[in-house]
Amino acid sequence: MLATTGSSAARAQEGTWTFVASAGAGFVGMEDVNRTLERTVRFWNEVEFIPVGPFSKFSVVPSFGFRTSYRYDRDVAVSLSASFFSAKVRNHYSDPSVELDMERSVGSVDLLLGLSYFFPLEWSLELQTFVDAGVIFARADALTFNSRVEKTGPDVVTTVYYDTDAKYRGTKAVATFGSSLTWSALSPFVLRTELSYRFARIGEMKGTIRKTQGTFEDLSQTVFDFSVLSVNLGIGYQFE
């Protein structure tokens, strides 16, 4: 009897639209970015003799997304989805003679078309598996400022040694696959939990570096991997 009820609910959703907004956590695989942060700290420690501490690592980031889907069949739906994440780490050192301020940030926006397959369950629950493909717009920014207080004859002056602003951008085709569990007992509202993995290895990214001498084009020495395992919770609305 319960299985029949679930199947009837699925048939009733044919020809319906669903919009879901979600938020959660993303577990990113940015090992090369984190290694670059470690090398940066070693440079300031060993070459410039500034005892700045380590950066925090890029590991878990907040993620946000939405998905609009049309269920044209009992078992199948097509969708348009987007997701966004942004993360920033900052490192600072200051004493009476030196100041060092560094900020590193990464982020991405993707737009995807997808295909979903439904498995009706009991108690107004449905399991959904999906595959998405589309494009990602990725960014990475790096700010560095370093000044020193020095004595020149009878005068004490502050000299800026580093003042750089690097911006890198990349665009690439990506794919996402995952599954979600939807509860529709509060129709037309739905609650959804989603687990997904996005494969988005960007590689090196082109960009520009602004220095005191001017602005120059640059290719990053870091390999960027925007792949992410996401766990999101969402609320949505269904309509015909």
Relevant terms:
mainly beta, two-stranded antiparallel ribbon, elongated, 2 helices, eight-stranded antiparallel β-barrel, 240 residues, 11% helix, Porin, disordered N terminus
What's the CATH architecture name? Beta Barrel
Mean pLDDT figure: 91
Backbone CA Rg: 24 Å
Instruction: Identify the overall geometry.
Output: elongated
Q: What's the CATH class, please?
A: Mainly Beta
Low-confidence stretches: 1-11
Termini gap = 27 Å
Discrete helix count: 2
* Total domain count: 1
Approximate helicity band: 10-25%
Largest sheet: 8 strands, antiparallel, barrel
Q: Remind me, CATH topology?
A: Porin
Q: What's the number of extended β-strand segments?
A: 12
Strand ordering within the main sheet: 1-2-3-4-5-6-7-12
Strand content: over 45%
Q: Look at the helices and sheets and give the structural class.
A: mainly beta
Identify the quaternary structure here: single chain
The arrangement of helices and strands along the chain is HEHEEEEEEEEEEE
What does this structure look like?
With 240 residues, the chain is mostly beta strands. It has a single domain, classed as Porin (Beta Barrel). The protein is 11% helix and 69% strand. It has 2 helices and 12 strands. Strands 1-2-3-4-5-6-7-12 form an 8-stranded antiparallel β-barrel. It has a two-stranded antiparallel ribbon with strand order 8-11. β4 (98-120) and β5 (125-152) form a beta hairpin. It is elongated. Mean pLDDT is 91; it is low at 1-11.
